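== Sequence entry ==
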Amino acid sequence: MKTKTITRLGIFLCLGLVLSYVESLIPVVVAIPGFKIGLSNIVTMYVLYVYDSKKAFVIMALRVILSGFLFSGMSAILYGLVGGVFCIVVMSLLKKTNLFSVMAVSMTGAVFHNFGQLMAAFIVMNNAKIFMYFPVLVLTGIVTGLLIGYLSGFVIKRLENSSLFSSKDV
């Protein structure tokens, strides 16, 4: 990997951490445990679309681990990584088909992220009743996924010809 690519990915990782921090400052208006908009996923979506799924996975994993240590704790790292793996795998597969919009990929990724977190909670708690929470998580995943997908699509289009963040010369 070229130095320019590593530098750019480092910038994206930092941007993702900043967005995670900013989001942690936003008061939760919705009374749904664990609810987050997922602003830092804009960075993950950008890297997925402009670079590739491997780089998006690395950015997601490093961001989850670092933001967990900095802002939220070990349980957030566990749930975030499991949800992130589900999310990246599904989004990568959907993107590869070229049949889905950025918004559809993001929305599906958000739902699978929530499902992955629910699976992690099931394993930790060993209680199947946790799945009663799934319909709420599907709904929040759809709403936040559409919002993040819209914002990601906007960012991807705006920066697609930018020499600063383009992957064309890497």
About this structure: The CA atoms of residues 105 and 111 lie 10 Å apart.
